[in-house]
What does this fold into?
Amino acid sequence: MEYQLVISNYTQPPSLKQGDTIGICAPSGIFDISRFNIGINMLKSMDFNLHIPDEIYQKKRYMAGEDKLRADVINSLFQNSNIKGIVCARGGFGALRTLDYIDYDLITANPKLFVGFSDVTALLMAISERSRIQVVHGPVVTSLADANEATVKSLYQQLTSYCSSCDADVNSHIYYDKVFGGISSDSCGCRTLRKGYALGRLTGGNLATLCHLTGTRFQPNFDDSTLFLEDVGEPTYKIDRMLTQMKLAGMFNKVKGVITGSFERCGYNDINKIDNINQARTIIDEIILEIFDNPEQPIVSVVDAGHGITNLSLRFGAVVQIDI
It folds into this structure.
């Protein structure tokens, strides 16, 4: 398998350098302070300064404050010229509720790398599509608390990589220090589910969150995309149901290729009584092949991104070429 990146019409935000300031927002759930502090220290160890607004410590039920307050923190971080990048505190639940309060025109005028995953997928989709900027599907502050070396290195390289004329560098760190890869099933553990060729912008994220966007005015557009999907803790029949709903809504009609990440702890407590991770992953791969049934769609399974032990950072909005 070979992956390459080409020109994208999504703005590539400026890369960060050592000494730059990263702003922290909390668009989703209340976070564990001890894990948060460990993650903050990890970012500091990369030689970044941190700006942590007082507002992110507020609480409303299971969320880190009122909806508008959480969105206003994001808006203010994009507006502040001293902030060079933004990392979310955690996922969980709540990002969906902030979408109406985000100033997308402000973000368009002040593009910055915005990092998160899981529930933050809602913001990754809304910001990338409405503000037309590249965003980073990568670890949140609390998940950095126990992140492995590959995860930390990947995030650092996404934050500091830049290519003045193309997207060639933004995903180059994954598995090899080349253009996105030279990824093969032998070298990374990923599997080819279907051979083929595809060229499309990388997009997607957490399946459950993407499914919840279906039918809303924030429903993402996957036309001409290389679609990345991952999830955690879902029975296989629910994964099947979510993908089927999105397919029936026409969201997959023009997808060029598919890459799946980790489906961590998926399949357990299933109606089929699946208790083996390999068996669950085999069923998920079968479902993916059935949903994306175009024989010309290449599909790659088990890239190390998402809720697994390794969570490699991916640049959404960059254009990925898959040649299997």
Q: What stands out?
A: Residues 2-6, 163-187 have pLDDT under 50 and may be disordered. The chain has two domains: 2-8+168-323, 21-160.
